[in-house]
Design goal:
Blueprint: E1 4-5, E2 11-12, H1 35-46, E3 52-56, H2 58-67, E4 72-77, H3 86-94, E5 99-101, H4 104-111, E6 119-124, E7 129-130, H5 131-137, E8 144-150, H6 155-167, E9 172-175, H7 184-190, E10 198-201, H8 205-214, E11 218-222, E12 228-229, E13 238-244, H9 252-256, E14 260-263, H10 275-290
Parallel strand pairs: 4-5, 7-10, 8-9, 8-13, 9-10, 11-13, 11-14, 12-14
Antiparallel strand pairs: 1-2, 3-6, 4-6
Length: about 290
């Protein structure tokens, strides 16, 4: 990173921005050895509230800031990445919120992961949306696709599924624990897609799917042992596609309520695809057929 020399001959820090001179809330200046910043970092990691979460990696943080900057509570960033987030630091300073430039070891402590990508944000969670609320507000849609997850809980699978949902215009994922979609690992894997896809809370998946059918949605399940080929099926405009946990698939109660059972054809050399890959293929075909 380039440095500039001030008139007095000392090296000027390129990260020292004009707004930091008047902002007292940005408690850590561009000094990775600042002990106050380190103390506050430890305090923050211990006091994350239920309505807060940590988001890390450049793409996830950048998209979140673009979509809902008011939700950012605090920023931790490496000196290397900081210039790319100058606008974020300026916003935080103007709104009396703190940012801290720290080293990678400190970032790993804050994120709870070594895959932080040089930036961590403490943010307010997106408000929870129930399935009933979603169905009511989207009742006039003639074309819509939702996903329902039956026992899928791996953060990286959830993030990859969310990313595919965002890419193909899917607005909601029906899941018993929607907060899982907002974990740091899931949001990092989603690469910003989490800002465009809501976790739709439901306590009872079979009942939730019944409500979807009553609202005009066709229920689709997948199976590696039967069903119609994905590429020989006509997919309706309003669908809920149900995916189960990889080892056992969807539960019997859910499978029995399906209107269409799909199979993704292949060589047969492996029993099944990863759930996130299967979701991407089916979503892509549904999207293609609706064009």
């Amino acid at each position: 990173m380039s440095q500039h020399r001030a008139k007095n001959g000392k090296v000027a820090n390129p990260l020292q921005k004009p707004w930091t001179k008047t902002d007292k809330s940005a408690s850590a200046k561009p000094n990775r050895n600042s002990s106050p910043a380190r103390q506050q970092t430890v305090k923050v990691t211990k006091s994350v509230q239920d309505n807060e979460t940590k988001v890390y990696s450049a793409n996830a943080c950048r998209v979140l800031f673009q979509q809902r900057p008011e939700s950012v509570i605090r920023l931790y960033i490496s000196e290397k990445i900081a210039p790319k987030f100058a606008d974020v630091m300026k916003y935080l300073a103007a709104t009396k919120k703190a940012y801290h430039i720290v080293d990678d070891a400190e970032l790993e402590k804050v994120a709870g992961s070594g895959h932080h990508g040089g930036v961590v944000m403490l943010v307010k969670r997106k408000p929870t949306v129930t399935l009933a609320q979603y169905l009511q507000s989207n009742s006039r849609k003639r074309q819509d696709c939702l996903l329902a997850l039956d026992g899928v809980g791996n953060a990286h699978n959830l993030g990859a599924i969310t990313r595919s949902c965002a890419h193909f215009g899917v607005g909601g994922i029906i899941i018993k624990q929607p907060e899982l979609l907002q974990s740091g690992a899931a949001l990092r894997t989603a690469e910003g897609g989490g800002e465009f896809v809501d976790g739709l809370a439901c306590d009872n998946l079979p009942l939730a799917l019944k409500l979807c059918k009553e609202a005009g949605y066709t229920l689709i399940t997948t199976s590696s042992h039967g069903g119609t080929s994905l590429y020989q099926s006509t997919l309706p405009a309003k669908v809920v596609i149900v995916f189960g946990e990889e080892m056992f698939g969807v539960s019997k109660n859910v499978a029995q309520s399906a209107d269409i059972a799909l199979q993704i054809p292949g060589s047969g050399k492996v029993e099944s695809l990863n759930v996130s890959v299967a979701a991407s293929l089916i979503l892509g075909e549904w999207y293609r057929q609706q064009l």
